[in-house]
Structure formats: structure tokens, C-alpha cells
Amino acid sequence: MHLRHLHLPGLTPYSHLVKIQTHLLSLHLSTLSPHIKPLHPTPSAPSPPTLLTFQTPPTYTCGRREISRLTPSQITHLRADGKAEFYESLRGGQTTYHGPGQLTAFLTLNLKTHGFTSRSYVEFLENSVIATLAPYGITGTRTENPGVWTPNGKKITSVGVHLRRYITGYGIGLNVHTDLGWFDRIVMCGLPGKKATSFEAEEVRGKSVEEVARVFAEVVAAGLKDCDDVVRIVGEDQVLGNG
């Protein structure tokens, strides 16, 4: 089995990324329930784990517990006079930020195939980020709070997932050269006073999101049960079945 890795260059609207992820989810679910049809039908076969990595324009998303709970004034504040987008999402966790300079990664796989429980899967994502940071000289840690933190108590990665019949969605947001000022508009993890950090803020400069995405993909593949290697996908048509 291979981990398929699709990295989208440039900035991709969050709404389009959710459409790609919805298709991947439908492919996995169709192998579990024949009456569930993929959005773009392809020859029937077990769906391999797929990692989608990308950057978005400035975007805030809330978790499923906050859907319909943010006030219009709070949403207006997040949209920053039209400089940012806001979306509700089905992932766990609270409101977070995605944008240029952040490696955002959606991982779609079957928990049972790879021997995960819901808890061990979140730990796997966090540990994969920690292993990705290590070659760059950045120490990442897991704490009682979700995500990955640095020893100075700052958050470098947010983690939020969605599960449907053991199929995963969403994933992580790792700050590489993100404008951290955007995080001032939210309370991270609902913990007042907590701050974000990034590769650049930790004095690791000149690294691209694409480079870090490749490292993360290799770490994820190495940690998945029965996964041999990473297959790079060029162009989303190979995922959507249009090519």
C-alpha cells in the first residue's frame, strides 16, 4: 500500500479543498457501503490513504461544536474587513486560522485498516508533526492541550479531525512562515494568553511549505501500518478521477 500525496501549489480556496476532501471521503465510504456512490466514480478498489497538503488565502474555520454559535459580530471580526474568509467545518476543535505560509494537511484513511483508535490517530498526527520538526532543530511537544507546542509554551501546530465510519478527514495546520498576527483575532484552544509560533519565529528561516510538506508526507507514510512509501500525485485530476 502507498500513501498518495497531492500538494497543491500557490493558494487554494478553502471551499475547493473541502470539495476534494468530500470526494476522497466518498471513495472510502463506497468501499464500505456499496449504496454510497463516489462523486466521481472510478473502478472499484480499496482506497489508499491520501494526504492533501496546501496553503489557503487568509481563512478562519470553526469546529463542529461552534457551528451556528458564533455571533454575527464575531464572524465580522474574523473576516477583517474582507481580508479573510470564514467557514464552518465538521472537524473537532475550536476556531483556528489557515493562510499563506502555513502547511495545512488533510489526511483521509480508514482507521481500522491502519490499526488506529480515534485517540491513537490524533496522537499519531501530533507525533508525525514532532518528527517533522526535529530535522529542522525545532522541539515539538504534546501537552494536555490539543496540537503541538514548543518548549516556550507556544503553539506551532493545530490538530482537528473528523471521523465518519472510521474514515478520517481534516488534519493539521503547521506554521512555517505564517503571519502570526492573524492569530491575535482568536483565542487558541480557548486558552487566553496562549500564542502561536512558526518555523520563522523559532529562527528557522528560508523553508518553503512545499519542502516541509514532503517531509511530513514521508513521516506519515513511515508511521502507517502496511504502508510502503509515498506516491506523489501531480494535479488534482488524478484524485478526482478526471484524468
Average residue pLDDT: 89
Major sheet summary line: 7 strands, mixed
What fraction strand?
15-25%
Give me the number of helical elements. 5
Total strands: 10
Round the Cα radius of gyration to an integer and report it.
17 Å
Outline the low-pLDDT stretches.
Answer: none
Task: Kindly list the characteristics that best describe this protein.
243 residues; alpha/beta; 3-stranded mixed β-sheet; globular
Write up what this structure looks like:
It is built from five helices and ten strands, in the order E-H-E-E-H-E-E-E-H-E-E-E-H-E-H. The protein is α/β, with parallel strands linked by helices and 243 residues long. The strands form two sheets. Strands 7-8-9-6-2-1-10 form a seven-stranded mixed β-sheet, with helices on both faces. Strands 4-3-5 form a three-stranded mixed β-sheet, with helices on one face. Helix 3 packs across helix 4.
Write the layout of secondary structure elements.
Blueprint: E1 2-11, H1 14-32, E2 50-55, E3 59-62, H2 72-79, E4 85-88, E5 96-98, E6 102-108, H3 118-133, E7 148-149, E8 155-164, E9 167-175, H4 209-223, E10 229-233, H5 237-240
Parallel strand pairs: 1-2, 1-10, 3-4
Antiparallel strand pairs: 2-6, 3-5, 6-9, 7-8, 8-9
Helix pairs in contact: 3-4
Task: Describe the structure concisely.
The chain is α/β, with parallel strands linked by helices and 243 residues long. The chain has 5 helices and 10 strands.
